[in-house]
Design a protein that fits this description.
With 717 residues, this protein is of the alpha/beta class. It contains 31 helices and 20 strands. The strands form four sheets. An eight-stranded mixed β-sheet has the order 13-12-11-14-15-16-17-18, with helices on both faces. Strands 1-2-3-4-5-7-10 form a seven-stranded mixed β-sheet, with helices on both faces. The chain is globular. The chain binds nicotinamide-adenine-dinucleotide. The site of nicotinamide-adenine-dinucleotide (NAD) has 23 residues, from helix 14 and helix 17.
Length: 717
């Protein structure tokens, strides 16, 4: 043994050829401080090792190296810039040491080589991957750029154009794609990885592969003519402006940096990388995106625990083959859980199956699914007009019409058919789970399972725990949602549950503005372009359905009369009474007609404008700050209440639910992160300015107290 530690070791494979094997104590290899220290020490030993002729860098785990340790980031990035500068310099010294070994080096890559893992393979002279490899630099997705030499080495290995694409999109690449651009030198079957790496390394040792000149190229300025450079960087800037937009500074910074250092050698170019990295690490956007990554891990970890506890769902059933039932059946089948889809109407069953077939057809078209795979999924959806095949289901998801009486009857019927320990879940969007539980003999086996439309695309499932719901039931439904590829978040029962409960106050803020003559098109523009929502509130109401929203408003008014009581002259009611239901009937705040692909295209509708002018006067312009405050303060206050009342268990889960359920702007990190970023005291001052608008604008006493104490929701992050 040449070197041994708890993160990696180095040993001889054969005379002259050593292998450095990453094998951390945890489940994956990552560049945390401990690993970096051992990596450094091992390289020091190798530099002075007589008889060394070549080095293989490999992993003993199912993945190569997944990246830097993101859990260390937020505390590290809160340190003064000089500390960050030191960290980057020290770490790059290590990567340079690998690159500067006096012998040829090869990375043998299996599984993930992302971020720092990818930067480590780039520091080697040669790279061979097996078919399981996934390679990429995802740092821009966290609001950062690669910091261990990735922005310097990758363009010099695969060319500026490819590197700009890899780095600005942050995507991971399959080995064949990586081979095509020259990021790796060969792809082999997993069992041939080690021998292929040694064979290629030997060709370098004998001089057949000119590793020295490959190495020199990585350390020299980029070889780009002026015209080529102008083309590459202009194109990349255009792409980034279009795809990333103005709220995400990292991809823009990456292009600017790669351009800036293109004429420089390694040492100078790395200095540029450090400076750009530090600047980004200190942005609110990086904090928000890293926070979301950590929250996501936390939420997924909870689902994993539930999956370990719960008996797996072998057979599912869905009641109702409508928009939601059809989507749920499809999602269940596609992720491998067979499902019975029951409805009372044959046409509904046909429609549900057709929808599933259409979605699958698209996947076959895109080459993501083979035709026999499609048949297998479709066979996993069994349509039925009676309950008989439902009897064997471990979980039944009820998705019939939103009517408490009908749901009560249907739930009681199905409870009589299924096994004693089967779980029932309702996909209601508004009806209290405790109310529905009253129809059941075994309310402990019942909870809510609130999907979002369209089911196959929206990542969130709210799992609603009723007063009598057992832990086993929650665990089973959480596990089933996770198996469906969704992110389940457990919330307690209340009108609107978590997501709709906080969304409707936002709509109320919007309605109040409209009643004062605000221009909904201006509001939509401010809330989407400036605040960053995927769409503004008027468009969102049209997509949700004005009739649905109208109904929800009634439910919320009954549930929270003191804050959400029916608003007189509500623009949503106005639209509803004029039969303007939004996208579903082609007219709401906007009008819709199918485009060439059959997707509804939104255009301005003079009739809607005239109707609103009639009701509230000619449209007035409000400044953006007012629009944001007046729509967001009610949503934020309600979110804080949900946390205080234990509807949602933690700021992390609330922020993930908002991101995955309604597309809260990721660069803001969620409502609790947003509060921490702007400062609780500033938020309280902002809300107080609008206190006269009613109880939705009143901050809670506890939040006021937290603000006075200078507290935060995310501790130490
Ligand atoms: N559409 C959404 O955006 C959305 C989002 C989340 C939750 N939800 C909820 O999902 C549920 C279903 O909504 P949808 O939009 O799919 O409605 P939908 O009208 O498209 O579908 C309802 C289906 O239920 C069937 N049905 C009625 N009575 C039945 C019975 N006794 N047994 C079996 N099937 C019966 C109907 O034939 C119809 O096919 C509702 O509770 C709704 O609130 C809807």
């Amino acid at each position: 043994m040449i070197f041994e530690s708890n993160a990696l070791s180095v040993d001889w494979l054969e005379p002259g050829i050593a292998q450095m094997t990453f094998d951390a104590e945890g489940s994956v290899n990552k560049f945390d401080r401990n690993t970096l220290t051992h990596f450094h020490n091992a390289l020091n030993v190798l530099h002075d090792l007589p008889d060394l002729k070549g080095l293989v860098v490999a992993s003993a785990k199912g993945a190569f190296i997944v990246g830097a340790d993101i859990t260390e980031f937020l505390t590290l990035f809160a340190e003064p810039e000089s500390v960050l500068q030191h960290w980057l310099e020290e770490t790059n010294l290590i990567f340079n040491k690998l690159e500067d070994l006096p012998v040829p080096t090869i990375a043998a890559i299996n599984g993930y080589a992302l971020g720092g893992g990818c930067e480590a393979i780039l520091a080697c002279d040669l790279r061979v991957a097996d078919s399981s490899a996934r390679i990429g630099l995802p740092e821009t997705k966290l609001g950062l750029i690669p910091g261990f030499g990735g922005t310097v080495r990758l363009p010099r290995v695969i060319g500026a154009d490819n590197a700009l694409e890899w780095i600005t999109t942050g995507k991971e690449h399959r080995p064949d794609a990586a081979l095509q651009v020259g990021a790796i030198d060969a792809v082999v079957a997993p069992d041939a990885l080690s021998s292929a790496a040694v064979a290629m390394l030997k060709r370098a040792i004998t001089g057949e592969i000119d590793w020295q000149s490959r190495r020199a190229r990585k350390q020299a300025p980029l070889t780009l003519s002026k015209i080529e450079a102008a083309m590459s960087f202009t194109t990349a800037k255009g792409m980034v402006a279009m795809k990333a937009g103005p709220h995400y500074p990292a991809p823009h910074a990456a292009v600017a940096l790669i351009e800036q250092v293109s004429g420089q050698g390694r040492a100078e170019a790395l200095q540029g990388e450090h400076a750009a990295f530090i600047k980004l690490a200190k942005t609110d956007v990086a904090t928000a995106l890293i926070g979301l990554f950590l929250n996501d891990q936390y939420v997924k970890g909870k689902a994993k625990k539930a999956t370990k506890l719960a008996k797996p769902v072998e057979q599912a059933a869905v009641l109702g083959a409508g928009i939601m039932g059809g989507g749920i059946a499809y999602q269940s089948a596609v992720k491998g859980t067979p499902v019975v889809m029951k409805d009372i109407a044959q046409p509904a069953l046909d429609l549900g199956l057709n929808e599933a077939a259409k979605l699958l057809g698209k996947q076959v078209e895109r080459g993501r699914l083979k035709p026999d795979g499609m048949a297998k999924v479709l066979n996993n959806i069994v349509p039925s007009l009676d309950y008989a095949p439902v009897a064997h289901a471990d979980v039944v998801v009820e998705a019939v019409v939103e009517n408490p009486k009908v749901k009560g009857i249907v739930l009681a019927e199905v409870e009589g058919v299924v096994a004693e320990d089967a779980v029932l879940a309702s996909n209601t969007s508004t009806i209290s789970i405790d109310l529905l539980a009253q129809s059941l003999k075994r309310p402990e086996n019942f909870c809510g399972m609130h999907f979002f439309n369209p089911v196959h695309r929206m990542p969130l499932v709210e799992v609603i725990r009723g007063a009598k719901t057992s832990d086993e039931t929650v665990a089973k439904v959480v596990a089933y949602a996770a198996k469906m590829g969704k992110t389940p978040i457990v919330v307690n029962d209340c009108p609107g549950f978590f997501v709709n409960r906080v969304l409707f106050p936002y709509f109320a803020g919007f309605s109040l503005l409209l009643k004062e003559g605000a221009d909904f098109q201006q509001i939509d523009k401010v809330m989407s372009k400036q605040f960053g929502w995927p769409m503004g509130p008027a468009y969102l109401l049209d997509v949700v359905g004005i009739d649905t929203a109208h109904h929800c408003l009634d439910v919320m008014a009954a549930g929270f009369p003191e804050r959400m009581g029916k608003m007189e002259n509500d623009p949503v009611d106005l639209m509803f009474k004029a039969d303007r239901y939004g996208q579903k009937n082609g007219k709401g705040f906007f009008q819709y007609a199918p485009d060439r692909k059959g997707k509804p295209k939104k255009t301005v509708d003079e009739a809607a404008l005239a109707m609103l002018t009639d009701a509230y006067g000619a449209p007035k312009s409000f400044d953006a700050e007012t629009i944001i405050a007046r729509t967001m303060v009610p949503m934020i206050n309600e979110t804080v209440r949900c946390l205080e009342e234990g509807i949602v268990a933690s700021p992390a889960e609330a922020d993930m639910a908002l991101l995955y359920g309604i597309g809260f702007p990721a660069f803001r990190g969620g409502i609790f992160r947003y509060l921490d970023t702007i400062g609780l005291d500033r938020f309280v001052a902002m809300a107080d300015q609008y206190a006269h608008l009613g109880p939705l604008y009143q901050v809670t006493d506890k939040l006021r107290e937290m603000a006075a104490q200078g507290a935060r929701f995310y501790q130490g992050q």
